[in-house]
Design a protein that fits this description.
Radius of gyration of chain B: 24 Å
CATH architecture of chain A: Roll
Distance between the termini of chain B: 46 Å
Order of helices and strands of chain A: EHEHHEEE
Strand content of chain B: 15-25%
Number of helices of chain A: 3
Helix content of chain A: 10-25%
Strand order of the largest sheet of chain B: 3-2-1-4-5-6-7-8
CATH superfamily of chain A: Beta-grasp domain
Helix content of chain B: 25-40%
Largest interface: A-B, 25 and 50 residues
CATH architecture of the largest domain in chain B: 3-Layer(aba) Sandwich
Structural class of chain B: alpha/beta
Number of domains of chain B: 2
Shape of chain A: globular
Largest sheet of chain A: 5 strands, mixed
Distance between the termini of chain A: 43 Å
CATH topology of chain A: Ubiquitin-like (UB roll)
Strand order of the largest sheet of chain A: 2-1-5-3-4
Shape of chain B: elongated
Oligomer: heterodimer
Number of helices of chain B: 16
């Protein structure tokens, strides 16, 4: 099962400048695990030292926040898109 | 739509338009979705713009042109040359003026029928509630996390809609927070990122057109709230990718346990948002990166004396192409794995654009055992100011 993970602009610098990557994964957690093992620098930006997703990083499966699904255990199906939505604050500089 | 924008008490609402206004707004008036009724709603509406910069430019221009009767402009900043690439309210002759006042002049010229107030002040926990209370809609066009949380919390405490927009490089976000049935900023982002993890526009750059697009979306949502028309972005986060030219939307849910807008509110007043976001000032370096420094003039004197100094430039390659001090380029992010390129027996002076990234580099190298390393205070900007004005500032 192939799942696409969208990498947002602020994190692309840690992901070889890629805007997305595809992984074979049965859950959201597996796909993110695939992402952070391919791009090790991403890990500290997504996870705390004790392995929890950081509170300012939102992860969506298609258009739904995984906090309202089964978090990282949310099952994925072929063709799903996972989006990482970090906080951005720019506007008026 | 469940939205209701209550007209403020006090001044009597306008019930008619002048002939000049009818002519000016004729393209609105001939649309049944706006019409005379909608145009009067706009005339009686009071909108406060937080920030008159990149997002504030299209916001101010379109809301003034549309005939929003009272516009408040909050900004403490002054127009500089680097703003003109995207802050289209301002002209070259405005450089050096207060942004809120320069914007007020421009918007008054665009539409003399509306009331525009410039607030030359920084939005703070002390003044936010007082500033917001007279306005119907608050529009967040700020550039930093502390102010975003402050705008959110003040809107929730006062029950006012918060039209949100945010940009970074080629990406934008927009939504409407603060409606009784919708989520707030804290439902989406319960905690801010630690300082330094997400670069600001000044560090990360932004394509000039992007705030124009995202600010225009905020202006549209503001007008829809006032007209009570269409489907608002309440509960939907609109994502815009300018490079891919794609719009996507995500569902935003109201978090029942949200400390601000949830069923059991635990935040009942405005707090210290700089402390909450872990920063004491937007540009102040973290206190742990106090490192030995050299001023541009000292460096120049030592180079002129022929001292053996190794110049380490920790900026990005595209910045190096703008201007450089003939240094050895190792971007800050690559330093850990390229540290072997440096000779710790030589005296090293690290620099970047402003001195912030190079302070981190010096801190890192000191921890790695380098002893003879200094940070160029103020970076290339200070070098240009104090030593060599032929080096361009960016």
């Amino acid at each position: 099962m192939s799942v696409k993970v969208m990498i947002p602009t602020p994190l692309r610098v840690y992901a070889g400048k890629r805007d997305s990557a595809e992984f074979s994964a049965a859950t959201v957690g597996e796909a993110l695990g695939g992402l952070t093992s391919q791009f090790a620098d991403l890990k500290k930006h997504l996870y705390t030292e004790d392995g929890k997703l950081r509170a300012f990083v939102n992860v969506y499966l298609n258009d739904e926040d995984i906090r309202y699904l089964k978090q990282e255990n949310t099952p994925t199906k072929d063709g799903d898109t996972i989006s990482i939505i970090p906080s951005i604050a720019g506007g008026s500089f | 739509m469940a939205t209701t924008i209550q007209p403020q008490t006090g001044a009597k609402p306008a019930t008619s338009l002048t002939n000049e206004e009818i002519l000016r707004y004729s393209r609105h008036l001939i649309m049944p979705e706006v019409g005379m009724e909608g145009q009067l709603k706009l005339k009686n509406a009071k909108v406060l713009l937080i920030g008159t910069g990149g997002l504030g430019a299209p916001l101010g221009l379109y809301l003034a042109a549309a005939g929003v009767g009272r516009l408040g402009l909050v900004d403490f900043d002054v127009v500089d040359f680097t703003n003109l690439q995207r802050q289209v309210t301002f002209g070259t002759s405005d450089v050096g003026k207060f942004k809120s006042e320069a914007a007020r002049e421009r918007l008054s010229n665009l539409n003399p029928n509306i009331q525009i107030e410039a607030f030359e002040t920084k939005l703070t926990s002390e003044n936010a509630l007082e500033l917001f209370k007279d306005f119907d809609v608050i529009v967040d066009g700020t550039d930093n996390f502390p102010t975003r949380y402050l705008v959110n919390d003040a809107c929730i405490l006062l029950g006012k809609p918060n039209v949100y927009g945010s940009i970074f490089r080629f990406e934008g976000q927009a939504t409407v927070f603060g409606m009784p049935d919708g989520p707030c900023y804290r439902c989406l982002y319960p905690e801010p990122p630690p300082p330094g993890l997400v670069p600001s526009c000044a560090e990360g750059g932004v394509l000039g057109v992007l705030p124009g697009i995202v600010g225009s979306i905020q202006a549209m949502e503001t007008i829809k709230l006032i007209l009570r028309a269409g489907d608002s972005l309440i509960g939907r986060l609109l994502l815009f990718d300018a490079l891919g030219m794609k719009f996507r939307e995500l569902k935003l849910r109201k978090n029942p346990n949200c400390p601000m807008c949830g069923e059991h509110r635990t935040i009942n007043k405005l707090i210290d948002y700089y402390e909450f976001c872990g920063v004491r000032g937007e540009e102040a370096p973290a206190p742990d990166v106090q490192v030995p420094e050299i001023t541009p003039r000292e460096l120049k004197a030592r180079l002129d004396r022929g001292d053996d100094l190794y110049i380490l430039d920790v900026r990005e390659p595209h910045e190096f192409k703008i201007c450089n001090l003939n240094g050895h380029l190792i971007p800050l992010g690559e330093l850990p794995r390229r540290v072997h390129e440096l000779d710790s027996s030589r005296e090293i002076v690290a620099h970047c654009r402003s001195g912030k990234r190079s302070a981190e580099a010096v801190d890192f190298l000191r921890k790695a055992g380098f002893r003879k390393i200094l940070n160029l205070k103020g970076g290339i900007l200070a070098w240009s100011d104090e030593v060599d004005p032929s080096v361009p500032k960016y």
